[in-house]
Each structure stands twice: as C-alpha cells, then as structure tokens.
Specification:
By secondary structure, the protein is an alpha+beta fold. The protein has 19 helices and 24 strands. Helix content is 36%, strand content 24%.
Length: 667
C-alpha cells in the first residue's frame, strides 16, 4: 500500500512496509520515494492507494498539477472548508484517478493565493477580494521577475540598463537588497563570477576602480556629498568686530610650506633684542576668534573633524571662503594666536619668557620649499654673501632648533628610547615623503610620484618650532588647569599613543606636555585647543570661568574619541588611494616594471621609489632592509593587490634607518 502525505509543504508518497493499530490510531512504517525510513500516523495521511506504482503516480501527478486551471478549481470549490476528495469530483468527475487526486493536492498546496490551508488535506477557498489582491500581487511579481531577467541579461552582456544609470551609485554603495535592480545585479554577478564593482565597471556604470574606492569612502563619511554648502561662511560683522579688538604686532612673519599647501596655518618671526638675543614668534591662524562652539561653522568642522588628504585632491574641514579669510597668506596682516619665546645669543630658549596673545600679524612672505630648500645649508646660513630671503632669520631659528632637538633627545633616552638623528637622513634610506601629481595626458590619467627625503634644515626648523609651539600650548593649558585635547604617548601597547583631555607626557617626542594647536584650519582638535588658548590669552587666571570647555566636560571627552577614530579612518583612506596610484604608476606604461624593494619585517617589503608595501614571502627569512629586484604582475586595482615575482635578492647593505618622529612634523 502507498500513502500520500505532506512534509515541509510538499506532497510526498511513501510505500508501507508494516502496519500497526487500527482506525484513528493506525500507523505505518514506510519508505519514501527517496529511500528514507519514516513512520506515519493515520491523521498525517491524505490518501491511500494500492496501484499504480508510487513513483509513476508522483511523476504523472507532478505533470498534471502544472496543467490545472486554478481559477476553474477555485470556481468549483465550495465556500466552506473542503477536503481533497470533495473537490476532485467537481474538477475531474466522479472517476478521478489516483494521479489526478494527487495532482490536485500538489496544486492546492502550492496555491495559497487561491486556497487557504485549514489542516492536513483540508482547504478553503480565499474570499474574492483577497483573491483579486493576491492575483494582482502575483502579476506584479511576474513582471518584476521578467524585468529582473531582462536587466540580468543586459548586465551579463556588458550593457548597463539605461533606466538604472541614475541610481548606479546607490545600487553599488548603499543598495536596497529587496529591489529588482539589486537582485538582477547579484544574479548577473553569480552568472559571470564577477563582483558587483567589477561588473559595473565593465558595464560603464562606474568609471574606474578609483571611482569605486572614492565612492565607498564618501558613502561612509560624506553621504550627502563632500562639497560645503554656500551658507557655510563667516559672519562678516562678527569678523570685523573680532579683528577690531586685536593689536597689530610689530614683527615680520613668514611661512614655510610646500607649493601645494593652500591652508597656511602657521608662520614664524624673528625679532632682535637689545642684549643680542632674539624673540621667536610662532603665529597660528586664528579661526577660533570668530568660529564659536556650537555655531554653524563649528558644526561643519566637528562633523568632518579634519581635512582629508589624498593624491590629486583633498576634502577640506572648513569651507574655502573661511580658509581664505584666515589662512596666513602674504601681503596683509592676518588674525593669529601668537606664542613668543626669547632665546639668548647661543640659541637657548628661556621658557620663563613665554608670552601668548591674539593679534594681527603682518604676513610678509610665504616661502616655498621648492624654491629655497636647495639653497639652505649650514655653510650658506653663515655666509654673509648668500642672497636668499630670510637667511639671517633662518640662521637664528636653525641654531635654536638644534638646542630644542637636543633637549628632546635627552628625555627620549631617559625614557628608554634611542636618540633620533638630526639633519638630513642618509640618502640611501627609504624616502618617507612623496608628492603625487595626477596629470591628464591625451585624455589619459598619468601619475608622477616624486620622493623627498626628510631631515633638511628647513624641515627641522619648521618641525622643531611647531613641536615647541604644541608643547608650550600644552604647558600653558596644564599650568592654568584648563582641559584640552592632549596628544600623549606613554608605555607600550596598542593604546600607547592616544588623545586625552588631561595633560600627559609624550615620551616619543621627549615632552612633558603636547597639545596639537598648529593646524586649526585643518584639524578640529587644534581648533578646540585654540578656543581654550584664546580664553587664556584674553582672561589669564580667570580663563577657567569663561573657556568653552570646563574640566571633566563630557562633550570634550566625546570629541577626543571621535577625533581619534575619524583621523585614523582618514589616514587609512589616504593610504588606500596612495596604494591605488602606486599600482597605477607601476602599470601605466603598459608593461610590468622591474622594481627594487626593501624587506621591512615578516615578509612585508616596500618599493624603493614609491610608498607601496607588498608581501614578498621569499624575503621573510632575510634581515631587515634586504634589497631585492622584483617584477609586479596581475595588478588588481579593485583589490589593490599585485603578484610579486622575485628576480634577484642582493646581499644586505647596512643602512641607517630614518627616524620616526610621531607627531613631529610641521603638520
């Protein structure tokens, strides 16, 4: 005997092997068509039959179920609850065969729009209104499936559907996975074996792998776009009122930056004193004089936390109009927060002479590294015949910078760290600064990557005096009990370097206090610290009463955490795009380049000419800085990866390592 039953929503047939009991308590040991041993009770069985053979019945019933007119079946069914036999006579007649009855069970079970299931083998037809709504939904679903199939075919063929082009970015970066478009995209990817990004690039919906990397970043951090709104601007009346209160400094200030710097945050001045010493001024752009805590520009700056730098472009923290108003551009006095310190004839700074004031600073020059760096040397600084601009001032700054550096190294050594080298690094070491220039050549983007060694005299002058400014600012905040965003480094481990709201040492720099304050146009931490310092400059010992942030301010603690996270994310994005352009550089001439790499650690190496890090397992057992000649193949600009084939491993050459001054740059 064979039994028809339902399991998991499907109609199945099993052949009885043995039976027990009788009536409603009857049960059977049976074997399903798949060979599975099962036990069935009478209440679970829809239909019993001896012949035809079970598999033949299932085959014929399955075929017949596809031919059943569900609308006719619904018309034949009574309004009240009915069983399988009741409706089979209406549909097939009194002599309905076993396969026909089973086919009805399959059809009824698979048509929830037409029939509601009321129990095992029991059904009730859906009310007319619900049936009509269900049929309309089925029709929509069918049209969606047809549309999905059509779009899928176009995508596989390399054509992006015209109607989807306006939503291509959303489809890739923030899709609604329930939409027909997304389902078509995923189905096409499954068919071709491509990722959504690969397929959309092939179809022309996304311009390039670069657009993909940029789009992913913007989606996560600038979902409404990176452009500033036109309403984000300085209130001119407030600006005029703020600068009207500022005295004009009796100094001549100049900045030192590379040619690509447009946000000039800092400048220096040197004024000769009667005793033969000099007064050094570090002048910081002062947007904090006009931007106030919680105003519209503060909300813009806080939402971004920092300017985002990457090859070929940047996303500024503040609108261009604000930057232009406060940047220390040459040609006119600019509002600034100045820190002054006196140095003696030997160049030793007297920290007791520290002064800080908000003032208008005459900006007389913006020196560019490209124009002057090659002229500045130990010899030329003392050569009276040297004619480059600000030679005397640079000589004074350099003499004092060497003392500042030496003092920090003493503390580094006391902290158990090695002393850092002063001045130019050995030219054979790996360069750590790079300038990326993206050019359009006959409609094609080409990248030039120029390496630059750190450690020049101008580098050291700017770095040491900016470190001094940050250190002095941290000391002033600490001495007056004002909270701020302090950059600390102590001990070892993943949280060794961190941002906190209370003072602490920076062991890596050899400083007791260190608070970022030299880049308020580019870093929100510096703008926050500037507010606190402005309160100190204006109100002295009563600054705690009027400063925007009081001790233990929970908002300031939140800013510290948010800034740390955001700053790290931006740095990772910059690294990602630098890697992209390095790989583009390696492949842009149409041939794989033979390159030299240096082993760093654990099989990770860096290309000598560009900041491209690649795994080279063959070098894992070799000493640090081992040099090898390699060729790059299989470059993937989406995955930012490349295969490396080693051509030759050279004997190790002892080369001193570049010093790593965390937080020690002019930036």
């Amino acid at each position: 005997m064979n039994l028809v039953y339902e399991e998991g929503g499907d109609i199945k047939i099993a052949t009885v092997q043995s039976a027990a009991g009788s009536g409603d308590s009857e049960s059977w040991q049976a074997t399903s068509l798949t060979g599975k041993k099962i036990k069935l009770k009478a209440k679970e069985v829809w239909l019993r039959f001896e012949k035809p053979e079970a598999q033949a019945v299932m085959n014929e019933a399955t075929a017949l179920s596809k031919e059943i007119d569900l609308q006719l079946l619904w018309d034949c069914a009574p309004d009240e609850e009915f069983g399988l036999f009741d409706v089979s006579e209406e549909y097939f007649g009194a002599q309905a065969s076993i396969p026909q009855q089973v086919s009805l069970g399959i059809a009824l079970q698979g048509a929830p729009v037409f029939f509601r299931r009321k129990g095992r083998g029991r059904f009730q037809r859906a009310p007319l209104e619900q049936l009509q709504a269900g049929l309309a939904a089925l029709e929509r679903k069918q049209k969606e499936l047809e549309q999905q199939s059509s779009w899928q075919q176009e995508l596989v063929a390399g054509r992006f559907p015209e109607v989807l082009k306006s939503s291509a970015q959303q489809l890739l970066f923030s899709p609604d996975k329930n939409t027909t478009a997304y389902k078509a995209l995923i189905a096409a990817c499954n068919e071709t074996g491509e990722s959504p990004a690969q397929l959309m690039i092939r179809c022309g919906a996304i311009d390039s792998p670069l657009a993909y990397h940029q789009g992913m970043f913007l989606k996560g951090h600038f979902p409404n776009g990176a452009a500033h709104t036109q309403t984000s601007a300085v209130d001119q009346d407030a600006y005029a009122a703020a600068i009207a209160q500022l005295p004009l400094a009796d100094i001549k200030a100049f900045s030192i930056d590379d040619a690509g710097t447009t946000e000039i945050d800092d400048a220096l001045s040197v004024t000769e004193l009667a005793d033969g010493g000099h007064r050094i001024g570090i002048h910081i752009a002062a947007p904090g004089l006009v931007i106030s805590k919680n105003d519209s520009l503060d909300q813009v700056a806080r939402s971004r936390m920092s300017t985002v730098y990457f090859p070929g472009d940047k996303i500024t923290m503040l609108p261009d109009s604000v930057i232009e108003q406060f940047s220390l551009d040459e040609g006119a006095p600019r509002p600034a927060l100045s820190i002054y310190v006196d140095i003696d004839v030997q160049g030793i700074a007297n920290r007791d002479s520290l002064q800080m004031r908000a003032e208008m600073v005459p900006m007389v020059a913006n020196l560019r590294l490209e124009n002057i760096e090659h002229l500045v040397s130990e010899e030329s600084l003392i050569d009276e015949s040297a004619t480059y601009s600000y030679r005397k001032e640079l000589a004074v700054l350099w003499k004092a910078a060497k003392y500042l550096h030496a003092g920090r190294q003493e503390k580094r050594v006391a902290n158990g760290l090695r002393a850092e080298q002063l001045g130019p690094i050995d030219p054979n070491t790996l360069a750590r600064d790079f300038y990326f220039q993206i050019k359009d050549v006959n409609g094609l983007e080409r990248v030039e990557i120029v390496a630059r060694q750190r450690g020049s005299i101008l580098d050291t002058i700017v770095a040491e005096w900016m470190i001094f400014c940050n250190s002095a600012s941290g000391q002033l905040l600490a001495d007056h009990g004002l909270p701020g965003l302090f950059r600390t480094q102590k001990g070892w481990g993943p949280l060794r370097t961190r941002m906190q709201t209370t003072p602490g040492p920076h062991e890596g720099l050899g400083l007791d206090y260190y608070a970022w304050c030299t880049s308020p146009l580019r870093r929100y931490s510096d703008l926050v610290n500037q507010w606190q310092l402005i309160a100190l400059a204006k109100h002295g010992v009563t600054a705690k009463m009027v400063a925007p942030f009081a001790p233990q301010d929970a908002t300031l603690m939140g800013i510290a955490a948010d800034f740390e996270s955001c700053y790290q994310t931006y740095a990772e994005y910059q690294d990602r795009l630098e890697k992209y352009w390095c790989l583009r550089w390696a492949m842009q001439d149409g041939e794989s380049k033979n390159l030299y790499v240096r082993h760093l650690k654990e099989g990770m190496s860096r290309v000598e000419l560009v900041p491209l890090h690649l795994p080279v397992p063959e070098l894992a057992s070799h000493p640090r800085m081992t040099r090898a000649k390699v060729v790059l193949t299989d470059i993937d600009l989406l995955q930012l990866s490349a295969a490396v084939r080693v051509l030759e491993i050279e004997a190790r050459v002892e080369v001193p390592e570049a010093s790593a001054q965390e937080d020690g740059s002019a930036d």
